[in-house]
Amino acid sequence: MATPIRVLIVEDRSADAELSVREMRRAGYAADWTRVETEADYLIALEQPWDLILADFSLPDFSGFRALELIKAQGRDIPLMIVSGTIGEENAIAVLKAGAGDCVMKDRLSRLGSTIERVLREADENRNRKEMERALVESQELYYSLVESMPQCVFRKDTGGRYLFANQRFYETLDRTLKDILGHTDADLFPPETAASFRKEDQQVMESGGSLEKVQEQERPDGRKIQVRILRSPLYTSSGAIAGVQGIFWDVTDQLRDESRLRLQSAALEAAANAIAIIGRDGVIQWVNESFSRLTGYPLSEAVGQHTRVFKSGKHDASFYAALWQTVHKGNIWHGEMWNRRKDGSLYQEEMTIAPVKNERGEISHYIAVKQDITEKKELEKRMLRAQRLESIGQLAGGIAHDLNNVLAPILMS
Predict the structure, then answer these.
(1) pTM, whole model, 2 decimals?
(2) Are 155 and 247 in contact (CB under 8 A)?
(3) Residue 366 near residue 286, CB atoms below 8 Å
(4) Is the pLDDT of residue 205 over 70?
(5) Closest by Cα among 126, 116, 119 to 31
(6) What mean pLDDT, rounded, does the chain reach?
(7) Among 151, 166, 176, 145, which residue's Cα sits nearest to residue 255?
């Protein structure tokens, strides 16, 4: 099956153009072609898409060299071949250097088909190469754009420890300029002890071929010491050889301080005598401390994921719970006493405070419940009240007996 091809022929002799078309057909091409012989007609024809241009080198009012210049000026990626009767070696070399695909003499048109095949193949390869180069440039531009906008410090060094690249965040963090960084080593930028440590770790990465991540202390230009997390990895050449080290680091001083504070807070909550639970907006438990587990009988693994309704004692009606949740949903603190049920089914009385916790947007995200078992306290209060009542009854009975004695004494004495 013939290969379709759209060909623009720049030729002043129609017979020569038809000979070229016949040779293309013999080579297996179904040519859809147009012939022009002036620059004006050529420019009009270039408004259409073409797969190939065949141009005579010398025409009365035009030339193949000029045709080549025009498509280059327009940025058109159309392969052009010279098909000429006479051109001369010097002109042939010049037109090939200018970008022509090849030259075929009119008395050797039998070469036309194979030459077209090669020129079209090379043109496709050239387009693919240019597309890959363009994509590579775009990728590199995107990479450097991303790296320059990163809040972390990014760097590259050669095997000798000299900086090949540093992003803006890097040199601004060191209160330096890019010129101060490139071509210099850590010994030029950091205190001797720090520079020696960096060099040792760089060599470890290059020798092992693996990544290295660690947190270490770094002194800022103002003398302030900070904690930074550094991630290093080998830098490779296109052939796979190690060319140096690349890495990224960022200040984790605040993060480590916050993590330490959270650990302390967590330890304090865990060790608290009161039962504490963190509850989601949906009423599902997300965390409890050990005192909570002792109070309810539910260990952490069983309490998490449970809805608070699992503790209902049956001693309170729906309006009680509705009022409780209405209070905390409005962002207020609820405090009161209530009966709850342990895992083993036994009931206990507790004093509880529920406080809402808001996120950075000011929205309620969780609730913290602090509980205290007051069952024994309430039982003791009942006993004391009962004893007080008995004491009152005893005093009343004693008073009545005394009054009776005063009334009966005279009667008995008579």
Answers:
(1) 0.49
(2) yes
(3) yes
(4) yes
(5) 116
(6) 88
(7) 151
